[in-house]
Amino acid sequence: MWLLSLLDAAERMGIAPLSVERLHRLVYLANAMAPVYDLLTPDGYLLKYKRGPFFPEVQWDVDRLCAQGLVGATELKTVHDELGWWFQASYSLTRTGMVAVDQAMHLDAIGSKATFLREVVRAFAAILRKEDNKADEADAVLLEDVTYAHADSDAPIDFNTAADNLTALAANEIAKRVSENELVGRREKVHLYFRYLDRVWDVQKVQANG
After folding, report:
1. 52 Cβ contact list (under 8 Å, min separation 6)
2. Could you report the per-residue pLDDT of 97-114, keeping only the tens digit for each?
């Protein structure tokens, strides 16, 4: 339901279908930021791939959802570039998947998670619009996450525990500094953190251009 709710949020925000790269990056940010909404992290362990966050178990779940008719896959193909062989695909909810999400929303446990995931996708959609539909740049913004950016290449990233989750800690700290000691809601924390990532990306572009 975590994956179905994320894809449902993408449909609602008008950014579906999601490429395999974008899907895994949003899964990663959603998992890392789950503590901001007092939610358990579904999967807090992965390797830092050169192409960006990738969860083999999540991909297995996506493929299974496709086989069940809840998710549709398009633009399937294999590619070869400077990083080696890879695959491309775009994912979106089928009508059956939409019905399943609508029915599950009546459950409290699902509703709270879906609300969080919608805010994560809404925050990303705002970046996507800001980048004037330059999808590659918007996707690159997500890689500025403090946990992912500071991890060693091909090294494991483990943010299952609160002390190791730099993303959630950073989101809370940014909210404190921006709010000037005023209470900031969970929704605002998510959006503030994504705007922080976008700002870091902008600064790096300026520096790269001299």
Report:
1. 21, 24, 25, 139, 142, 143
2. 999 999 998 888 888 899
